Amino acid sequence: MNTKGIALVATLALMVVIALLVFGTFFTTQIELWTTRNDTTSVQAFYAAEAGLQKYKAALFQQYVWREKQGGTGGGSGCFTPLVNGLDLDRNGTLIPFTNNQLVLAENEAVMDAFGNPVGRYRVVLYKDAQDGQLFTLVSQGTSSGAKATVQATFRISNAGYLEQAIFAGTGQANKWLNGGATIRGGIYVVGSPSDPDQTVIAANGNFALYNWYDLYDLKAYPGIASRVEPGYQKVQDLCASLRVQYGKISVGGSAQIGEPTNKVKGVFVGRGAQDITGENGKNVDVCRNNKNNKGVKGVCTETLGGFDLSNPPPFPTLDAKLDSDACSAYLTWRDCLQNRAALRIRRLGNLVSIATPLGVNLDPSCLQAMQSGTLTLDNKDKDVDCTFTRPDGSRGGFRYTYGGGKGLLEVFGDVVLEGLNLVLNQPTDYQASSSSGSAKSATFAVLKDKDGAGGNLDINGSLLPDASFGSFPGHALGFVVEKDLYQGGQYVMAPVYAGGTFRVEKNNVLFGSVIANEFYTTSANAGQKAEVVYIRIPKENRPVLLPDLKGGKPVFQVLSYERR
């Protein structure tokens, strides 16, 4: 036997085995390195995409806040935000417009490591919803050494300011009962009491409804109203309505309905969440119907339901607190602002009625005489009331009421303040409102109490509408500030209103505009009588400047969804 040959074969076989083991180990190591490298680049691509998303999410919100604080940002009905027209990321007045509802915000932008070396790049595109002006989606695609990752998020960007609701309330309902077929078209915001979070601030019963739309072409419901309103505001299918309660509970009973299956409200955000939203035998909260089956239950139809969602909510405005608006920011209180900014201020102390602002003007005797009793009643039975004056530049200030042809005409030239007086409008009345400068067709009419508590109430017993020959709503708007109670007994009122006490609308009456009131109720002593509030948004540049609209409002940035691909 040749032992040397066998040894050679065994040695070669052993070397082959060792080589295979070495190669296998090397191959396994390479696979692990390739896998690790792929994992690393995939992670880097994801973080590059995430970096793009987070950067431009912040930029989008900052852009919205900045644009809201600018004057003359325009406006529109329904789900409006100034971002629908494009972005001004350089803040130089030049908008980058959307093309086919999309806008490229970043192209091949680099992400650096701690040493300044690029570890990935991203491309970010912003999409706006074609129908909803508050809905936006950011899509960020990251790359790193051939690896790709995509992340996207959808946001709702809105404003929770005072004039962005159908009703903005302090404590809520005066009688804690929305019944008799009351209808609110637009959002409701209730602050409530932080010391009593278990209080029911809205008890919706009967045929109460909160809808996300209105149609003024409905001649049966609103005869003659559409002609008073600008075409773009005559019909709105999406008001971006939400129901918010900061402190307190809501109860939904009977056949009450919040939203509809085909047009849900954007959100119901109440107190501590589901525990503060109750229904009749638990039926109304978790159902969403248009019919009256199941004993008339309709329920809550909303895209989102949960606890109160604002981290910096607006407080209920009061006359003796500071109002951080463009017009009133220099004054310690809103009352000071009204008194000092008024084109005409008339006050009654005891039995004496006098002109507080401006000094040295002479008014027609009919003006002060009409106020001697403590109540200024504008009616067909009284003589016309002329409280106007002419400024040195030839412009007019004050207000005038005349009656003829079966209705009154209230002309307001600049902002007007009455102190220690009540105001009563007994007849159907058209108004013409113009600012002190005459550049805007809007003004504020304030009715305040005196230091002894006299005055400060407004009763509107006939329809009060803008004179369409002078300008249509909301480009033409007269706002009312009432320190105590505002009662609407007239069929139609078209104006933004504030009541520091109670706002009440009853019978078959409708307010078009918005309501800010500490307490409100939309029913009368007789059940079954319908009342309604229809939210019509006023463009920022034409809002009566002395109404409580926070400078920039309270921006809300809600993340509706997040997806990694």
Low-pLDDT sequence parts: none
Name the overall outline: elongated
Cα-based radius of gyration, to the nearest Å: 32 Å
Number of helices: 4
Overall pLDDT confidence: 87
CA(first)-CA(last) distance:
69 Å
Helix share, percent: 10-25%
The total strand number stands at: 36
| Major β-sheet annotation | 21 strands, mixed
**Chain oligomer state:** single chain
Number of domains: 3
Beta strand %: 35-45%
Please state the structural category.
alpha/beta
Notable characteristics:
single chain; about 575 residues; about 15% helix; elongated
Structure description:
- The protein has 565 residues and is of the alpha/beta class.
- The chain folds into three domains: 38-161 and 554-564; 165-306, no CATH class; 334-523, no CATH class.
- The chain contains four helices and 36 strands.
- The chain has a 21-stranded mixed sheet that branches. Strands 1-2-3-4-36 form a five-stranded antiparallel sheet, covered by helices on one side.
- A hairpin with a 5-residue loop joins strand 1 and strand 2 (118-128).
- The termini are far apart.
- The model has no long low-confidence stretch (mean pLDDT 87).
- This is Competence protein ComZ.
- The chain crosses the membrane at residues 6-27.
- Keywords: Membrane, Transmembrane, Transmembrane helix.
